Amino acid sequence: xxxxxxxxxxxxxxxxxxxxxxxxxxxxxxxxxxxxxxxxxxxxxxxxxxxxxxxxxxxxxxxxxxxxxxxxxxxxxxxxxxxxxxxxxxxxxxxxxxxxxxxxxxxxxxxxxxxxxxxxxxxxxxxxxxxxxxxxxxxxxxxxxxxxxxxxxxxxxxxxxxxxxxxxxxxxxxxxxxxxxxxxxxxxxxxxxxxxxxxxxxxxxxxxxxxxxxxxxxxxxxxxxxxxxxxxxxxxxxxxxxxxxxxxxxxxxxxxxxxxxxxxxxxxxxxxxxxxxxxxxxxxxxxxxxxxxxxxxxxxxxxxxxxxxxxxxxxxxxxxxxxxxxxxxxxxxxxxxxxxxxxxxxxxxxxxxxxxxxxxxxxxxxxxxxxxxxxxxxxxxxxxxxxxxxxxxxxxxx
Length: 398
What we know:
- The chain is α+β, with helices and mostly antiparallel strands and about 400 residues long.
- The protein has helices at about 5-20, 20-40, 60-65, 70-75, 170, 175-190, 230-235, 240-245, 310-335, 340-350, 350-370, 385-395, and strands at about 45-50, 55-60, 85-90, 100-105, 110-115, 125-135, 140-150, 155-165, 195-200, 220-225, 265-275.
- The strands form 3 sheets. A 4-stranded mixed sheet has the order 1-7-6-3, with no helix packed on it.
C-alpha cells in the first residue's frame, strides 16, 4: 500500500468538494432527519384514548420491556426470563388517578392498568411506568398518556355478573374478555355489548382465598348495551327468582350458558341496571316551624340502689394476699428448715475426701513454690497421704 503526501490529500479534498452537488446535500439532510425522527420515536410517549363509561385496559408486556435491558443473549449466548416488577403512578403524584388501578400477580406475569373513567375524570392523564429488573436491578422508565374523552356509546341497559372461578389478572387479557363477551351475547341475544367495568371481589369486601388449587377470589364483570334486556335476563327481577336465591335451593330460571366452565356466572349474584328510566329526584326535606314540640317536664332517673362492695373486696384483695402469704411460708420453710447443715454434711463425708478438700490450697501453694525455685534447693514433697494410709491399714488388720 502506498502512502499519500499532504499535498495529495488536500488536492483530493478540493476535488471532492467541487463534485458535491445539491443531491448530496439532500441525501445528508434526509439521513439526518431520519436519524432524528428515529431518536424521537424511541423516546416518544405512548398515547392512548379512554372514553367515559367504558372499560380501559392497558397491558404491560414483560417481553417488550425485556428488550430495553442488556441483551444477554447476544453477549453470553443465553436468554434470561428475568422477573420484572412494574411501578405506576401519575406524573408528579405518588399514586394513580382515582379511576385507574394497577395489578400484577407475580414478577413473572404481565401488569395491567385498568379502570372506568367518569365524566369528572375527563382530561389528560400522564402515567409514569417504572420497570425494575429483579435479577440485576436495572430500571427503565416510560410514560403513558391517557386522554379521557366524552362517552362514545350510550349504554342505558347494563348488567353485572359474578364469575366465581376467575381472578382479576386472568380476566383482563383481551382474549378472555372476548370469551366472556361471547357468552353474555348469547344470553342477552345481541352482539352490541361493551365492557363497562371489571372489579375483583376483594374490592367488594370479599375474603382472601386460600393459597391452594381450586380457590379463587372471584370477579365482577359489568357490561352495557343500547339494546333492552332479553326475557331470560328479566327473570332476575322477579320475586320468584329472589325467593329461590334466598332459600339456597335449585334455581329454575338459570338460562346462562358458558363455553368455558371457568367463565360460568353465578346466576343469583347477577344484577340488572336499567338507566333508560328517569330517576325520580329525591324528596325535598320538610321545613318545620323551627320550634320543638312540648314534651312535658323532665323527669330524671332515680338513684341506683346501694351496693355492698365487701364481697368484691375479699375476692380481689384478701384472697390474693392470703395466697401470697402461704407461698412465702412454704418458700421460707424450704429455704431455712430443710437445709442439711455443715456438721451433718461433714459427718456423712469420708475422712479421706475431707482431707483432700482441706489440703487443696496448701498443695497448690507447695506446687507453685517448687515450680518457681531451683529443684536442687527446694524442699522435697511431703507425703501427705502416708499417715492416713497407715491408719487405714491398721484398722483393716485389727
